[in-house]
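haha ok so turns out i had the wrong file open the whole time. this is the CORRECT one, sorry everyone. sequence first:
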Amino acid sequence: MPWKRRPFRGSKLSRALTIADLRELARRRVPHFVFEYVEGGAEDEATLRGNRAAFERLRLVPHTLIDTSARHLRTTILGRAANAPLVIAPTGLNNMLHPEGDIGLARAAARLGIPYTLSSLSTTRLEEVAARAGGRLWMQLYVMKERAIARDIMQRAAAAGYEALVFTTDANVWGSREWDQRNYRSPGRPTLRTALDSLRHPRWLIEVLGRNGVPRFRNLERFLPPGGASAVGGSTILPRMFEATITWNDIAWIRDYWKSKLLIKGVLNVADAERALALGCDGIVVTNHGGRQLDHCVAPIEVLPEIAAAVGGRLSIVIDSGFRRGTDILKALALGAEAVQLGRAMVYGLGAGGSAGVDRALQILTTELHRDLGLIGCNSVTELGAQHVRHV
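then structure:
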């Protein structure tokens, strides 16, 4: 009967059974333009769809009659113990979904015992996140035309005790997210429809805008012109600040200011992975930026096996883009990833219920992964291997 398959319409986090349920709850709680910022991909969104389709082409091969009563999710990420093979990914403008977006994400990660990555485009100062959330903190870095910005972020993150730097290399040219752009008459100027839709969300208006005003790019504001630090004003300025001339030579420049662990985010081929290794990087993030940059781009899970075969064991390999289920995570770990980085899945939880919503998202995924380990015949994520996956 059709009534048996209606989409999730509940309002309680405890009733959300999947990441898709949290997505629906978040979609209803925030204005459309905020949700579209999170949801949208580049151009025709072929990469966005391809990330999910790539998981569908992978099938799991369980091994039977194995005692899996002792299974657990504990592992090692970037040389340190973690309670699950997960990392919360860097996402910008989180305070547009919840008044304490960055803090809520970081606290959820700390409670689970996994790393949290703060974006350069965060709406909370990196020092405040360290002081109020604690836990394992990684700092994401964009190198912009004004190199003083990157230098400032690296020096401050080091002083605040951040464990690792995640240098994002696939956004040197700003991607075209057309569905996001349709919410504005021109950059920074919402359409009438967007403004009216925001009025339909009084709780969001009170909690987000009423509490702290329009969120600001707190880690960049000293480098931005008057009015440019707000989420509205910054949208007209930031795309012009990104640097198209960054190269592998900049790794040495970064190392002048950053002495701790360094990961390169944006690797999608073996040659780049091997070059990161040769330059002394500690890890890579295999990613297509969640489908938000280059359209018709290869899915990270498709190239993971060849990258892992080339540099696995010598570099920490983290992967992201499109992960929504425990089985997705299982496939990536079996194909050579050390950990899976979660972006939208966590932001859906944030929009659905703040830090408690992120807790719920992590609970859903870790419960699924724990169950899936047993179903495939493993007690630990370290037992997973290529023998557990088949491409169809």
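The mean pLDDT is 94.
again sry for the mixup
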